[in-house]
Amino acid sequence: MTTTYEPVIGLEIHVQLLTRTKMFCGCELSFGEPPNTRTCPVCLGLPGALPVANAQAIHFGLMIGLALDSELAPRSIFHRKNYFYPDLPKGYQISQYDEPLCRGGRLADVRIHRVHLEEDAAKLVHVGASGRIHASDASIVDFNRGGTPLAEIVTEPDLHSPEQAGQWLRLLRATLRHLGVSDVNMDEGSLRCDANVSVRPEGSRELGTKTELKNMNSFRFLERGIRAEIARQEGILNEGGRVVQETLHFDPGSGEITSLRSKEQAHDYRYFPEPDLAPVAVSETMLAAARQAMPELPSARAVRLQDSLGLSAESAHLLAFRPELGDYFEQALQSSPDSTPSAGAQAQALANWVTGELAKRLAPEESPADSKVSPEAITVLSQMAAEKQISVGAARQVLDRLVAEGGDPRTLVEQEGLAALDGGDELRQIVRAAIAANADAAQRVRAGNPKATGPIVGYVMRETKGRADGAEVTRLIAELLG
Amino acid sequence: MSAEELVSLGAQAAAQALASGQIAAHELYEIYRSRAAADDLNCFTWVAEQTPAPPAASPLGGVPLAVKDLFCTEGVPSQSGSRILEGYLPPYTATAVERLLGAGACLLAKTNQDEFAMGSSNENSAFGPVLNPWDRSRVPGGSSGGSAAAVAAGLTPWALGTDTGGSIRQPAALCGIVGFKPTYGAVSRYGMIAFASSLDQAGPLTRDVTDAALMLRHLIGYDECDATSLDFPGEIALPTAERLDGVRLGVPEELTGEGIEAGVLAAFHATLALAEQLGATVEPISLPHAAHALSAYYVIAPAECSSNLARFDGVRYGMRTEAAGDLTEMYTRTRHDGFGAEVKRRIMLGTYALSSGYYDAYYGRAQCVRTKIVEDFRNVFADVDFVVTPTAPSVAFPLGSKTADPLAMYLNDFCTVPMSLAGIPAISIPCGLALPPEDRNVTEAASGGGLPVGFQIAGPAFSENRILETAFALEQAIGFDGGTVRA
Question: CATH classification of A425-481, choosing from 1.10.10, 3.40.50, 1.10.443, 3.40.710?
Fold first, then answer.
């Protein structure tokens, strides 16, 4: 009999902060500049150079703490984490250890262990066929990235599947993006994730031995890596083996997991308080500034959209957790001419257009604000559809044109002759013709089968190029066959 | 003015003569440059080859300045006395040096020192030991030994040094000059090649107290590049005090008894008597944790240095020993070849003290002792204005006499380390001569001879001006003549 296992997963996320300058010096952050052009004595670790903590990075750290409902330490300290590597010019990384900036907290159903600030390492490029440090012809260092501010966010082991881990990381990313503290781009490395993975027999409360899976640079790889590691651990346990605590590398190409170092080979980082920096004392002024700078968080926004606009829970959640949609939606809403008694219904209709038809037509992750469809245009379109000035089908055609070329929906409707046929004679004539052309169907409708109207409606829509309002057509069919 | 007369001018006198047009900056500089170039005490690791253009009207008006090797000076070798940085030319200048140059000082030379400021005799320099101008068979003290010997020998009007556990005060004492370690944070550390970050502090080595005040005036002040630097309250004034009425001097029993040479103690007590004549009161006090200061220091300083010196890995600058094997072998060989024995000893001590499982027992405990020492000083400063001690337990000792015994060498810092741990300012002024113990029986009768003894005055944080006034009044009363050793 094989045991069923429950995976237990915790994440360690490194986020590059979008400050103007580096964590401990005045160099501007680098976005693809030529190698080693954004450097100074401090971030090159030259003899005699000293670090000075970046106030904006601390401010961003506090905002992250507030967003994750963490306890903000009134006093935290920087430590030195000592180890030798060519991407670490001082021979130590300035990080935080037992007195981090933020402790505890929660985002959705996952508890946060801590949030701390540190500096990023430089970038190593290995020249030669292997592409890794072993067997490379040479290794060269680009210090542009060295010293970029990082926030490290560590969760409690509250995740239980690769999909849940991926989903939660997306939520975290949405939150951080909304705060405006980071690009949170996994491809470019401004969001990096390690996972601590263990498995335990279903129902057990004890934690199994965990392994650390390093640096999976996309959501897909994160989920695949965790899945592969769970399978590996289950395999070991099912064969009566024991999982060894170690640091692992997941190769997304081959799907293979290889060991980087075991617990015995783990570094002794010899942490000690960084004597070149004073403790970070978080003043009331700093706290007030962080609170002041906080945008509305997704969870709060969802509640507000539901309560004050009467949106459905689903729409509110979608708009809140994809802030680019939410911001666009709210901007569009403001461009409505007035608030009428039917404002609630209008808002819901607009939300449907934004989260449904429009989002569907954009590239994944593309912000509608960057598209050719202006918030005013989508509002006008939504209203024209709601007021039955155009049919839903026509509105979709207009949206296609807006996405492709932009413009004013009213002009497009006019140019294309897409205005809805009202219930007048013209439409009545077409419905008559449709009934005549579909005598069989008409017969069945008369015999009491209302679903048989399909071919007749289809005929009308073809004839009107979708301009006819479906409900009106149904009403006319019923009247004429009644 | 003759060359001899020019060299007899201290920095303050020279600055005045320059300002009044009595002497010309290039003339003064050229005399010192040729003297420094002809130095046979091994005081320097670099001497300027050209006379710089005289500065525009400025407070220091072109007074030449010697700077300890460990200060980064743009385009000028800055090696911290180490093989691993041999020939290293920094792309920037340390704040402390920049401030003095900005005030009109002219860089004359870089001075020899113990490697990475680790040592009390200057015998740990990769560029050879410095000789004491009072007796060339003896050490000048360390680690700012080159600076101290150069000032004493008149090879520079003054010099900039650094003090971690006594590295300004002890060589000043052994060379018969004035050395001042300011309050931690008063002078920027930016551009000082670090030994122990929480202790390192730059300060003047000068012929007299007035010159120390003048240099300090231009050194102090907050620097946005040093997060541990502080705004100094007020300005440094040139001292004028003649009397010490009402000044209370505390003599800690822990630092003035066992382990201090008899000749040193005699000079110290004679100075106390002089202070009383000037109106001061002398009271016995206790620094109960001072006895543990040296132990705590030799955990904290090595711990910090083990991390500070990690950057010397052969990757980006300085020496590299090419290795056929992997990266680790390159690191190992470079550091094996580049560091001297004392530096390696302290890196190993510090690495051990910070290791997982030992941190609490060593580093954690040493920090507790440090806190106790801070409290000790706070307590005594409620009752006295200054704590006074001999600066060093001995006069200058013979070259090679302590190199085989690190513990005996470490004891040189016995009286200076407590102030470093507490971060408080302290000055050493020459207070007389004493015969070294091995010569006592033989040459006691040969009066007039002997080696300089230093008198240390320490005060609370930011009491620099009061310390200078007290030191100035004592200096006038002592009338120490350091001119005899100027070549």
Answer: 1.10.10
